[in-house]
Structures are given as C-alpha cells and as structure tokens.
Amino acid sequence: MSHGRADERQVTRDDLGAWLIKGNADLVDLAGRFARDPRVTNWCVRPGYRARLMRAGQPVLFWASGSRGRLPYGVWGIGRLTGEPVPGGEARAPWTVPLDLTVLPEPRRLHRDRLRADPRLAGLEVFRQPQAANPSYLTRAQFTALADHLPEAAPGHHRPPPRS
Description:
Number of helices: 5
Distance between the termini: 30 Å
Oligomer: single chain
Largest sheet: 7 strands, mixed
Order of helices and strands: EHEHEEEEHHEH
Radius of gyration: 15 Å
Strand content: 25-35%
C-alpha cells in the first residue's frame, strides 16, 4: 500500500533529466537580485530522498514562480550542481545545494505558458504540484523536450547525461 499521494512520483537516477529549483518572486525580489548578479552559487532544498540523489554534474534549472500577472514566470536559468547538498545546522533546517547556474536575460527566459503549450512538457511536476518543496525534477524525456526551447548559446545548455 502506498502512503504517498497518487500524483507523487519517485525520482530515480535512471530517469532523472534535471533538477528544478524554485524561487517565489512574490516573496523575494528575484528580478532585482538577478539583474544585479545572474549567477547562482547555492540554493535551499528540502531534506529527503531527492536531496540525497543530488550529485555534482547533474543539470539544474531555476524556476521563478509567483503571481502570474506580475512577471513572466517559468525557467529563468540553467546550470549544473557542483556538489551534494549540505545539511542545515539545526534539525528540520533546509539543506543547501552548491550550483553553477546562470539566470538568462529576460528575453531568453522560457515562460511557463510556452512550456505548458508543449504537450511533451504539460505534465511537468511543477505544473502538477506547484506548491511542492524544492527540489522538483524533470524526467530525461522532459529535459530533452525543454532543451528544444533553450537558446543554443544558453550558459549550461545541456542534454541529459547518458544513463549510468
């Protein structure tokens, strides 16, 4: 018997295409922060089995969320993990994962409406469970489909790694 929700999927390394970390631009001035410095070197993730699957070299996407009418939300950045998550100092504290991620200039960001319109991406976990904690993920097939939307010169533009 499963004790998880029916729409929860177990992430496995075999089918992992990319991690997706989220930031809420309604709570923090992400646009201002990334205008000053588009590099992201770490981000908080929730402790758990997903965080324990994270390894250096895995692709990672940055998803900006918030009130849909305010800013064009969706994939704002792409990069790689540079290490494994580090546990927080206190019990139940978030973990921090080291990254080499660059937020794309605004005209090159992938807006959620464009991604939702692609039938290969309509089932993304971030659409099905927008309130879920970091990290979310894309399957290998979803990451390959998303890469079709990325500008060729995007920093960190990668296809899924070969299966190990």
